[in-house]
């Protein structure tokens, strides 16, 4: 009897050709491990159980499954002569709920046979009914995890057993719905450069044939350097960098510079708010030419001791350097600061206007660029 049941279960699990019964069906192979509890009259300890099933999904709501299970149960008092190998098989109907969601609960019920083979020969070839349910959680289109709990009633000897299990399922077969046909693009009229954008909208007429364009008819420019993709030989240029007609960095040809000059109040290293635009101008220039580095020079007038003026001019230079780093994101290793005190006047320290001109921070940022 055990051989008959086992053969039936293996045959059901290994025959996916039956899927032709419904073109939209899907098969699941459902191996699982679990825990089996026996009716008190059996005098058997609860034990582990192995389960294998082949399930055919009729549609999103209904399925049928052939299952087989096996356990090796010991007598509760340790009498090995009364140990039982329990082998069962059933044919079940499953009702799913939740449609196509990832987490799908179901109810299940079916009929089968169980063969328990103790030394006494009791409980052989018992008819069983089962009822229960579980949850399937989809990991992807093929793999899912399934938990299941069944109450098993033996009609011949009025026994009541139970199995809880968890397993991994593999799905295959079934037929996917054919994708809806894409509508043909509407014909474009008045398109002189044949780029798919009508002349009345096309802001870049004369685009070369076959070049990908945006909604305005202009060639795409992935890195935003002003050179379209089809001509860009350096397609990943950092934003804001100067490039040549092929989208690559310039070959250096001549020197260009920008000058920073900030005047300070007497005996102060605070940057006046009026010079914010001056700082931004230098920061923008240094961001545009990423290889530049500069020295920020601080100066003072001749009022006070020379040593103090040197310290004051250094603080002024440091204040400007720190502002460019903190407020405008210039890398610290591209800026240095030095204070010259009253050593390099540009005006007469005998007049108030001359002294004001000498209280300054300057920086010249040179860079070689293409013409």
**CATH fold-level name of the largest domain:** Porin
How does the helix and strand content classify structurally? alpha+beta
Helix proportion: 10-25%
Provide the succession of SSEs: HEEEEEEEEEEHEHEHE
Alpha carbon gyration radius = 42 Å
Ends distance: 95 Å
Largest sheet: 9 strands, antiparallel
Number of domains: 2
For the record, the CATH class of the largest domain is Mainly Beta
Mean pLDDT: 82
Task: Write up this protein.
The protein has helices spanning 2-13, 276-288, 306-328, 352-358; strands at 26-29, 32-37, 47-57, 62-73, 84-96, 103-116, 126-138, 143-154, 159-172, 254-263, 294-298, 335-339, 360-369. With 371 residues, the protein is an alpha+beta fold. It folds into two domains: 2-172, Beta Barrel (Porin); 254-369, 60s Ribosomal Protein L30, Chain: A (2-Layer Sandwich), CATH 3.30.1330.60. Strands 1, 2, 3, 4, 5, 6, 7, 8 and 9 form a nine-stranded antiparallel β-sheet that branches. Strands 10-13-11-12 form a four-stranded mixed β-sheet. The longest helix is centred in the C-terminal third of the chain and has 23 residues, at 306-328. 28% of the residues are buried.
């Amino acid at each position: 009897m055990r051989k008959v049941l086992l053969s039936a279960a293996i045959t059901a699990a290994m025959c996916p050709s039956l899927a032709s019964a419904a073109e939209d069906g899907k098969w699941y192979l459902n191996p699982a491990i679990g825990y089996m509890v026996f009716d008190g009259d059996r005098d058997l300890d609860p034990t582990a159980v192995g389960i294998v099933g082949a399930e055919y999904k009729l549609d999103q709501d209904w399925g049928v499954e052939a299952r087989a299970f096996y356990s090796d149960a010991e007598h509760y008092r340790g009498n090995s002569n009364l140990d039982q190998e329990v082998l069962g098989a059933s044919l079940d109907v499953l009702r799913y709920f939740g449609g196509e969601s990832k987490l799908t609960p179901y109810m299940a019920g079916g009929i089968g046979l169980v063969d328990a083979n103790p030394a006494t020969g009791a409980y052989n070839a018992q008819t069983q009914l089962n009822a229960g349910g579980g949850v399937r959680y989809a990991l992807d289109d093929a793999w899912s995890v399934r938990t299941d709990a069944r109450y098993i009633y033996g009609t011949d000897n009025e026994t009541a057993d139970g199995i809880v299990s968890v397993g991994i399922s593999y799905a295959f077969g079934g037929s996917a719905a054919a994708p809806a046909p894409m509508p043909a693009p509407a014909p474009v009229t008045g398109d002189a450069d044949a780029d798919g954008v009508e002349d009345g909208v096309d802001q870049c007429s004369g685009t070369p044939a076959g070049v990908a364009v945006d909604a305005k008819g202009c060639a795409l420019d992935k890195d935003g350097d002003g050179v379209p993709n089809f001509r860009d030989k350096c397609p990943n240029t950092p934003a804001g960098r100067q490039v040549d007609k092929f989208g690559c960095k310039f070959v250096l040809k001549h020197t260009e510079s920008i000058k920073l000059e900030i005047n300070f109040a007497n005996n102060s290293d605070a940057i006046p708010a009026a010079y914010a635009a001056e700082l931004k101008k230098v920061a923008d220039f240094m961001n545009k030419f990423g290889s530049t580095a500069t020295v920020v020079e601080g100066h003072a007038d001749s009022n006070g001791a020379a040593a103090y003026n040197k310290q004051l001019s250094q603080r002024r230079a440091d204040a400007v350097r720190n502002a460019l780093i903190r407020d405008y994101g210039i890398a610290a290793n591209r800026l240095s600061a030095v204070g010259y005190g009253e050593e390099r006047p540009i005006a007469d320290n005998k007049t108030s206007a001359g002294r004001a001109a000498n209280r300054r921070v300057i920086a010249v940022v040179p860079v070689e660029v293409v013409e």
